[in-house]
Amino acid sequence: MLTAHLPSGYLLYRAQPVQALPVLAAALVGAVLPDIDMIFFYLVDHRAIHHHRYWVHVPLFWAGVAALVLPLLYRRGWHWPGLVFFAAIGLHMVLDSIGGGIMWGAPFDTRLHALVTVPASQSHWVLSFILHWTFLAELMIWGAALTLFLRRSRA
Ligand SMILES: [Zn+2]
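Above are the sequence and the zinc ion SMILES. Below is the predicted complex in structure-token form.
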């Protein structure tokens, strides 16, 4: 997914029952956090490895972090923002599985699993993704998030 992680976090926030700023922040940060590996991808690895192969895009890594952190947050009464944060990270992995591929079986299986293979049909990979039919999912996420956001702003 190229552009719709942030609005997907907003949709997740609106779909859950606790409407509060810390929960919104958790949803938005969790929805985009795995893509922080793009810094390493471009500046250190110089695009040598698909960034979905870094540990921040491995579901089992986040499951382990959640298993460690959520009990601590529960003790402090911050379990709901924590749950939403990890749900947003899970949503990121699901959305990246549409066309990009996620190592759902890592570390035991290092294949990238994608619902659809986006062929390199254009001169640049970004163009190939934007002109592929799966980009409609991104546009729908943006549309739904903007609609909900604008409705709330008017209310
Ligand atoms: Zn990602």
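The chain has one domain: 5-147.
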